[in-house]
Amino acid sequence: MPDHDDAVTYRVRQVAAPGDLDWHRDDAGILVFTGTCPVCHGPSELPLLDVAPGTVPKPWGGGKQRDSGERRMHCECPITHPRNPEEFEGCGAWWPVKVPAPGPGTP
Question: In what order do the strands lie in the sheet with 31-36?
Fold first, then answer.
């Protein structure tokens, strides 16, 4: 894995999902995606509290929207990248992740 690139300029942008994208359930049963940011090579983790065992997806938006099962995973590296107006962590990159359908073989 390449070293983290601290010099990457902050820019909000969609990128392809990282090659090491993976998911597991933690000890509490929460679905957690992990992967390395494809832009700055920082570690990222996305716990999805809304798909924890026993929860029911809420049809926000008046019940007319369907949950596509897709979420955005953002770079969460511990670096404030140059030109980050909010001075929070991450380089601004994000990529879509697909929540696995429940069923046989799904932990």
Answer: 22-25, 31-36, 43-48
- 23 in helix, strand or coil? strand
CA 77 vs CA 3, 9, 31, 42, 104: distances in Å: 12, 13, 20, 5, 33
Which stretches does DSSP call E strand in 7-69?
13-14, 22-25, 31-36, 43-48
Residue with tokens 């990248």: 81
pLDDT in tens, 28-67: 888 899 999 999 999 999 998 765 555 555 555 444 445 5
**Dist CA 38 CA 42 (whole Å):** 8
pTM of the model: 0.75
10 Å CB burial of residue 19 (0-12, 13-18, 19+) is exposed
Cβ atoms 32, 51 nearer than 8 A: no
